[in-house]
Amino acid sequence: MSVHDPDRDHTSPDKDMAASKPAPEHDERLSTSEFEEDVDIDTANPAFVKRVKRKVDLRICVVLGVLYTVSLVDRVNLPVSTVLYPKQNAAVAGMSTDLKLKGNAYSLLVLVFFPFYISFQPPMTAIARKVRPRRFLSFIVTAWGLVMVGHGLVQSWRAMLALRVLLGILEAGFFSSCAYVLSSWYIRSEVAKRNAAFYLLGSLIAGFGGILAYGLSKMDGVGGHAGWRWIFIMEGIITIFMGLLSYFMIVDFPEDAHKSWKFLKEDEIKVVVDRINRDRRDVHAPPFKLVPYLKNGLDWKIWLYAANFGLTSVVTYATAYFLPIVLRQGLGFSEAAAQCLTAPCYAFASILGFAESMISDRIGLRTPFLLFNCVIEVIGIVVLGYAKASGVRYFGAFLIIGGAQSNIPFSLTYQANNIRGVWRRAFCSATIVGAGGIGGIIGSLTFRSQDAPDYRPGLYTCITAACVVFLSVCITTADFFVQNKKQKQGRTVIEGLEGFRYTY
């Protein structure tokens, strides 16, 4: 199967495929000559390449997508518990009553997660690279499962506050490491649909988390525990099980694939490594050095990549935390209906995002889809906020979630396509997900109970976030166009590699 790579269409084959040498400061070439045969692997044996990619998809996209589902469900079950058991509902022994949540206690429980989630991003990604993903990810998933069980057993909100801190530290290593691993296994023209499969599979299943939580809440009184406690306990047990199982399922980086339970044979590893090396020459990691690692932060584009992800996360977190509340208080749906009606929105987002990613990989463009999704986000926010009929406002929720959820994997792809280097990729994965944590803080604060039923400040915040992403993508895309033109004329070398071109 011939894979269309737009970044090589306009460059000389001699430059792009032959003995291209990166600049010394970015020299991350293969350390052996094992993979230096000048053969186009895709066209030499397309059936074999397709079979290898299918094996990689199952063990990378599917496994990480399932674990991401667990992460999302665990992350939003705190607000779900509060929606199911609001403060005044003492008859069902709700969380707010049992833990004596007064004043700003609930806001603290939500917000304390994010500072630790953000600040631990850079070291966690470097640790994942050092100890290998299989060990690292299975450990943190199992550990935060234990923490979630603890959420259901605590007797005071202060004890839960400590557990929320620990949860932030553990989850800090998850999403950025997953994004890093995924981008390490594929060439640039294939990564959009893989990012979409990983992220949107998790989001789709997690979209039914409210229904799961509602069902678990019906265990109220079993074993002497309130229903809200069973939400944490049972979902924590599921997380522990998935964490232990993931040790046998997760695979490491391509050059270490032979260590991952005989995942790939030697000739299959050769295909993966050779394709990546020909695409961007950053398979093997040079020794880690702190100063060069941190110097990546001097590139202004990296912070716009992070802004794209972080501001999109403002919208995704806001809808995850508050859409059930808006549906219940603003649109008048029952508690059960408010939880269940979020699921179709996420199903629509998964279909939209994956369809866009398939087309994006086929035509080799990312920017049009990022911009289109920003536009439908804004339309959805306006419809939800200003329409009169409940059904029409609910349709606005589809557009908001569809656009924002689809732009998360596109933000990852846009960044991953336009950087190279093992440690540079690790740094960027940390910054982009750290920005997502900042977006989570903003999203957690944007819909306030005193703003019901219109929630105007929250709507204005989400509109602003989508518009800034639109502007940011336009700025970086304009720069890519100029730099690619200079590269074509031989006036610059992009990312330290002859023949490398930006993807927009």
Automatic annotation (TrEMBL):
- Transmembrane segments annotated in the record for this chain: 56-73, 105-124, 136-154, 166-187, 196-216, 228-250, 302-324, 336-355, 367-387, 393-414, 426-446, 458-482
> What are the record keywords, sorted?
Membrane, Transmembrane, Transmembrane helix, Transport
Q: Give the span(s) annotated as Disordered.
A: 1-36
Q: Where is the Major facilitator superfamily (MFS) profile domain?
A: 63-486
What residue ranges carry the coiled-coil annotation?
none
Q: Where is the composition biased (Basic and acidic residues)?
A: 1-31
Q: Which InterPro entries match?
A: MFS, MFS_dom, MFS_trans_sf
For this UniProt entry, the molecular function terms from Gene Ontology, in alphabetical order, are:
transmembrane transporter activity
Q: Where in the cell is it found?
A: Membrane
Asked if the Swiss-Prot or TrEMBL record annotates the protein with the keyword Transport, the reply is yes
Q: Name one GO cellular component term.
A: membrane
A Pfam family annotated for this UniProt entry: MFS_1
Q: How does it sit in the membrane?
A: Multi-pass membrane protein
Please state the protein's primary subcellular location: membrane
Its protein name is Major facilitator superfamily (MFS) profile domain-containing protein
Q: Lineage of the native species?
A: Eukaryota, Fungi, Dikarya, Ascomycota, Pezizomycotina
